[in-house]
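ARCHIVE CARD
Drawer: 12
Card no.: 0347
Subject: one protein chain, sequence and derived structure
Cross-reference: see card 0346
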Amino acid sequence: MNNISKKAVSAVLSRIPLSLLNNLIHIDVVIAYYHVVSDCQVPHVIYLYDYKNATQFENDIEFLLKEFSPVSLFDLIKYLKHDNELPKNAFLLTFDDGFSEMHDMVAPILLRKGIPATFFISSDFIDNKKLCYLNKASLLVWSLNHKPASSNIEEKVRQILSDNGMQSNDMKSGILSIKYHQRHLLDEIAPIINLDFNEYLLKNEPYLNSNQINCLIRDGFTIGSHSIDHPLYSELSIKDQLNQTIESVRNIREKFSLSYGAFAFPHSDNNVSKLFFTELYRSGLVDISFGTGGLFDDSFSYNFQRISMEKPILPAKNIIAFQYIKRLVRERKGACKIIRR
């Protein structure tokens, strides 16, 4: 279903009282995730996905507080490991990618509202030492849109794409289609259009630094891993999947003296095997993990699925209602659980 259809259907479903949907569907905890909240254009994000502004985000929070009871990551781990009860209509708030807006904009709102949250961070990007390949792609397109390329520059970029099997009439969509294993191409294209990624990192500091992360921890928020450098796990070998996860969790736990280990898959956990989870939890470093599958259950009990609050940009009420109805349909079909092979 495309975003236009989702918006139309969600608008209708949002008129259904959530209390009625709660009576029809039993869900222990609703877990929501965002990437960024900003009132400004964010060049390293804007061509990757939509995001909400502060007013839209606060409206979401007001709805969630009205309809749900906020819980922390610790509450969920205790529920998972010690059979502690969660409050009725529990919800957990999470944020992926570790952008600096988490400290500057999101945390102050959450502190004012008294809501716990967990921030998932890719270990390579802490302190702005590196730039994620996806953010590089967005920056390249931003640069091209704000400083149109000459025919000579455009030809050079197209040649790089073509030499690597990417035939595209639209140079910008070609850049955005570059995958993790091709990420070196972004570094080849950048100097052609006179874009310096290191300069952007130094000037803009798009990611959280260690001081900001420690500040979030002191304020009562929890921190988790989001891999080393944000690959799509379905494109990795199981060895690389485990390395990305275990090493990033270990790094973050040690760096910030954490007594717990939490991990959220970058992109999604589609096609991640049962063996991966077995080996991951055998490491003893991870207490809980998260995918992006909506209101699915997971056959691996320590892995929880989450709802995107940005796809598409709609009020939380509409998104939650749409997800509840999808869950209800799945239950009727007996297909509301992700089965690991």
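Annotation on reverse: The radius of gyration is 20 Å. The mean pLDDT is 92.
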